[in-house]
Specification:
The structure is a homodimer.
Chain A: E1 2-5, H1 10-22, E2 27-30, H2 38-43, E3 51-53, E4 59-61, H3 63-74, H4 88-122, H5 134-157, H6 168-182, H7 192-202, H8 208-211
Parallel strand pairs in A: 1-2
Antiparallel strand pairs in A: 1-3, 3-4
């Protein structure tokens, strides 16, 4: 099995965490989507990471579709650690909050942060590269605060983000926050409950590969890999 | 059952078409999301249409989550007219193309068109109202062309957009196109196969309620409700 991903694509990180929880270890292939490689576009006409390719050649594109696919093909084997619950209202809540982070948090925080601070360094000018737009970065840094409070509020009422059990919603939230945290853009003093939740998920074995990431010329923030931050 | 929707929200139209195919007729409640009504935010903290509310009070927010929910609760009853196929690769393809229209087409075409031409008329200045941004409208009109070709290319190789049977992907594509068509922004001479596909889906009973829509002060384009356009 292969996973086409990018180190700083939060949706790819979400899928890597999910694979970790499933106990699976696909081959990782780093894709720079802005190069619009024809072989990659043949796998996924939308040209976006992540894309999973099964051994039989079946391509599964996009975080939400991969999550459904893994649950449909391997979910039962996880037993009471299943990442999408079996009951209807639990499924709605996990899907709602997974989408909250993969779509809303992405638009408001990780997409601008990663675009301005990471992707623009590697893109040529005609691909959209250039110096970062500081106004976009400031807006993302303001937005992340209310998301941290929302996480704190949810976790206070429950055990994990979408309920009593760890779910896809926690993996999505943690994946996006880990990108912002690498860049030093998570104000951890903002919400103590959110910080404790992140410390819990950060210490899971599935998280280790993400904490080992370093990018040449762009080291992580001081406490990025620190379990006691 | 209730559906909180907006007449020009393409995701709401997608859900209305789905209800039509399921033979269901929920009560429609028009929601102006920019007013951020507290009771609506309590149903869906993201504050976006569509939201379905079951008779028992269960709220289901968002087009993709509603589609999964309806399939899980009523899909089997549709038999061979089921909108999400049973086989794994069919499910991936339907979800991929449903997301193509509900996410990508939305960002590139319907979101800017509807925001600039419709929502801005009804919003106060402090809510983001004002005269339309013509550059955004021109970009959306350019983008819709390649989507029409993609529909034509898919339908030529298959019977419907995601395979041999009508699926959620057709409903998503048609819902978004119907918004652009109301506004007179679909260049129907661009792709004959796409036009024939739209004529087929437009003549389905589930489509009738959408064709009956008219907005005070903003009549539809001349051929909007015309089955032979």
């Amino acid at each position: 099995m292969q996973l086409f991903h990018h180190t700083f694509c939060p949706h790819s990180r979400f899928v890597r965490l999910a694979f970790g929880e499933y106990g699976m270890d696909p081959a990782l292939i780093e894709e720079r989507v802005w190069e619009r490689r024809p072989d990659f576009l043949a796998l996924d006409p939308a040209g976006a990471t992540p894309v999973v390719v099964e051994e039989n050649g079946l391509a599964v594109p996009g975080a939400a579709i991969i999550a459904e696919y893994l649950d449909e093909t391997r979910g039962l084997a996880l037993g009471d650690r299943r990442l999408l619950p079996e009951d209807l209202s639990g499924r709605i809540e996990v899907r709602r909050l997974t989408s909250w982070f993969n779509d809303k948090f992405f638009t408001e925080v990780t997409e601008p942060l990663v675009r301005e601070k990471v992707y623009k360094r590697y893109m040529k000018r005609e691909q959209g590269g250039g110096p970062p737009d500081m106004a976009a970065i400031r807006a993302a840094r303001a937005n992340i605060r209310y998301h941290l409070h929302y996480i704190g509020w949810l976790v206070k009422a429950r055990n994990w983000i979408a309920g009593e059990r760890l779910s896809y919603a926690d993996l999505a939230a943690a994946a996006h926050i880990s990108c912002a945290d690498y860049l030093g853009d998570v104000p951890w003093d903002e919400d103590e409950t959110a910080k404790i939740w992140y410390a819990r998920i950060k210490s899971r074995p599935s998280f280790r590969p993400l904490l080992a990431v370093t990018m040449a010329g762009m080291p992580p923030a001081a406490t990025y890999a620190d379990l006691d931050f």
